[in-house]
């Protein structure tokens, strides 16, 4: 019986992966087309995050989920995008400014800023998925929770980050056409999966800790 159960579980996983890949390809193509007008690029990304969030929760999601997320989170997406753009532009200009000054000690400031940019980008990868899960939609709360995710679930966070970097490198330097068909939707799905699984795991862990008697 155990072997039959194992085979059945494997078949279910393969079937789920097959149907999920179809949804991911469909969502990616919709996202790509919706992103062609630059003015809709950020809300289109928000719609993609929302649709892959629904996919993680419900098992599947189609173009309707994308449109719903695009409309429902239009301004949330713009707020998230503009805040990040402003901070990254400011930090990049600061790094460039200190790089133009020929003083040895200022080069350290430049590299500190470069590290700050890398940390900020890493944190923001999980921020929008967190905004979708939070009752409190404040940007700073989501950024703080992203840092908590790295601290309390480092394997999940770093492992997901590594997968995103691999997908980005492959899609950019080896096979750019994958950006049209799968790369963006797969990346947002992996980020949503990491956040949702981490939240569930932390809730279970904290619930056990609260229920345990003090020693």
Explain this structure:
- The protein has 215 residues and is mostly helical.
- The chain has one domain.
- 86% of the residues lie in helices and 0% in strands.
- It is globular, with a radius of gyration of 20 Å.
- It contains ten helices and no strands.
Gross geometry: globular
- Summarize the amount of helix as a percent range: over 70%
Catalogue the unreliable spans.
Answer: 208-215
Which class of secondary structure composition applies to the elements?
mainly alpha
**Tally of domains:** 1
Query: Count of helices?
Result: 10
* Structure summary, number of beta strands: 0
Order of helices and strands: HHHHHHHHHH
Distance between the termini: 43 Å
Oligomer: single chain
Q: Keywords for this structure?
A:
0% strand, single chain, 10 helices, mainly alpha, 215 residues, disordered C terminus
Summarize the structure.
With 215 residues, this protein is an all-alpha fold. It has helices at residues 2-35, 41-58, 63-72, 74-99, 104-125, 127-133, 139-152, 154-174, 178-181, 183-211.
Layout of helices and strands:
Elements lengths: L1 H34 L5 H18 L4 H10 L1 H26 L4 H22 L1 H7 L5 H14 L1 H21 L3 H4 L1 H29 L4
Helix pairs in contact: 1-2, 1-10, 2-3, 2-4, 2-10, 4-5, 6-7, 7-8, 8-10
């Amino acid at each position: 019986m155990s072997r039959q159960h194992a085979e059945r579980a494997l078949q279910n996983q393969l079937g789920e992966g097959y149907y999920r890949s179809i949804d991911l390809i469909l969502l990616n193509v919709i996202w790509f087309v919706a992103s062609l007008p630059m003015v809709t690029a950020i809300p289109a990304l928000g719609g993609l995050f929302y649709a892959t969030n629904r996919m993680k929760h419900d098992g599947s999601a189609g173009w309707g989920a994308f449109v719903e997320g695009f409309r429902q989170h239009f301004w949330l997406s713009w707020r998230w995008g503009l805040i990040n753009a402003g901070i990254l532009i400011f930090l990049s200009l600061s790094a460039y400014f200190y790089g133009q000054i020929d003083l040895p000690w200022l080069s350290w400031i430049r590299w500190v800023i470069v590290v700050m940019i890398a940390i900020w980008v890493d944190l923001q990868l999980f921020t929008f998925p967190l905004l979708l899960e939070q009752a409190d939609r404040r940007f700073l709360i989501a950024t703080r929770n992203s840092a908590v995710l790295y601290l309390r679930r480092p394997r999940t966070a770093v492992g997901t980050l590594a997968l995103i970097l691999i997908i980005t490198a492959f899609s950019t330097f080896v096979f750019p056409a994958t950006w049209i068909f799968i790369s963006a939707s797969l990346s947002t799905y992996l980020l949503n999966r990491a956040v949702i699984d981490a939240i569930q795991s932390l809730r279970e862990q904290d619930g056990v800790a609260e229920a345990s008697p003090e020693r």
